[in-house]
Every structure is written in structure tokens, then in C-alpha cells.
Amino acid sequence: MSRVNGKGVAPSVEKGALKTGSKSTDIAEVMQLIVNSEFEAAKKKVTSMSASVRTERMRGSLAAVNGIITSMTKKKEGSLPSWDEERAVRAAHQILKSEMLDDFDKGYSETLVKYGKLTKPAKPQA
User: Fold this and answer.
1) Comparing 18-22, 40-44, 76-80, which segment has the lowest mean pLDDT?
2) 78: left (phi > 0), else alpha (psi -120 to 50), else beta?
């Protein structure tokens, strides 16, 4: 057993925490693939991650990136007229304000907000 925050924590719990961190890293990698228009690679990464998801928050994150991939693919094909990142982020912020939020909703909304920040163009400095 090792010590974390002054409490004994089993090594397996620590590994679980590290896995959660790596899942966040994996989601960030998927979002970067989407930004780079590498939709097939993003789909493969999501598929490989989906089998090992253990939390509702992570399921929400995967659902969000899956939706983004689908939307961006349809946009590229011309079957989706527009994708407004600003609207998606605004909607996600509204969801996060809800008092009835569960972990799935949090994961979904937080992922949309992160994607919106990733795709938002930098404002020119005066």
C-alpha cells in the first residue's frame, strides 16, 4: 500500500486513477484527430477505447466524440449543412448548469466544451 493524501490506497486503486487520466489523454488525442480531419483514425481510436470504459462520465465523453465524428463526417460529405461549434459549446454550458446532471451528462458536456475550445480560433492580439 502507498500513501496518497495521508490515506492508505491500494496500488490497484492508484492504477485505476492513472487509467482514468490516460483515458482523458486518449479523448484529447481523438479530438485532435477530428480537428485534423482524420475521421477514420478517430473512429478506430474510439472503437478501441469503448471496450475498456468503466465510468459513466467516460461513456458520456465517448458518446460526445462519436457524435462529433458523425457530424463532421456528414459535414464533409455535404449531408450536414453546418456545424456551429459556438452553438454546441453554448448548449454544453447550459447542460452543465443543470441540477439534474449525472456523470454521463457531465462527461458528454465537458467533452463538447473542450472540443469547442480546441477548435476556437485564437483572437488576434492588438
Assistant:
1) 18-22
2) left
